[in-house]
Amino acid sequence: MVDTGIPASFIPHDTSVARPPLRGGGGLNDLLLLVAIVIFVASAALAIGVFLYGQYLATENTAKLAQLERAKAGFQPALIQQLTRLDDRMHAADRVLSAHIAPSIFFKALEEATLQTVAFQSLDFQVAENKSLTIKVAGVAESVNSIALQADLFSKNGVITSPIFSNIARQQDGVHFNLTAAVNPTAINFAGSVDAAEAADTTATPPASTSPFDALRQEGTEDGAAPAQPAQ
Q1: Are 137 and 120 contacting, i.e. CB atoms less than 8 angstroms apart?
Q2: 168 in a structural domain
Q3: Neighbouring-strand partners of residue 141
Q4: How far apart are CA 180 and CA 139, in angstroms?
Q5: pLDDT tens digits, residue range 146-168?
Q6: Total domains, the chain
Q7: Which of 13, 21, 214, 223 has the most CB atoms around its CB within 10 Å?
Q8: Distance between CA 158 and CA 153 in Å, rounded?
């Protein structure tokens, strides 16, 4: 058979050269997959770390509570409770004493401020709900001048304040009157009087001598010898 160069089939053949597939899209997918794996591993590690840290905190909290209970037991809770009750009672007693008034102070001040020409026939001591103190007195004086002088003395003694004399009437046995006055609660406070007495005792007590010759005098007295005298 003679080759004439004419193809025997009229079906065209693909004469293009095969090209390798592009790898750009595949590289981006691999990178995204790698990033996702790294994020997953980091999240897992973080979750495990948080879990372990929570377990550590729980264990530490339990240990601290046990240590606190041991320390509490070492402080003797029964004794602490007893001392707490004692402290509450002392505070209650202090509040009672701070509000307690001493009538003896009032009567002493009344005695010291009363003139010999004035006599009291009755005395009504009243305490209001707001803790204010008032007195109502009925008495008799030798003269009106005695009443005026008595009012001046009461206004200056610091215990009886705002004296008001009323119903002044002259009778056969003298000048009768009624007296209404307020009483200074601070001046007759029991706790204040105790503090004032202690301060007065401290002031009245002379300080101990610190002279260097005191020891020599003491030694001489104990040995039976005459106490040493300082050189002039």
Answers
A1: yes
A2: yes
A3: 118, 175
A4: 11
A5: 999 999 898 888 888 889 999 99
A6: 1
A7: 214
A8: 10
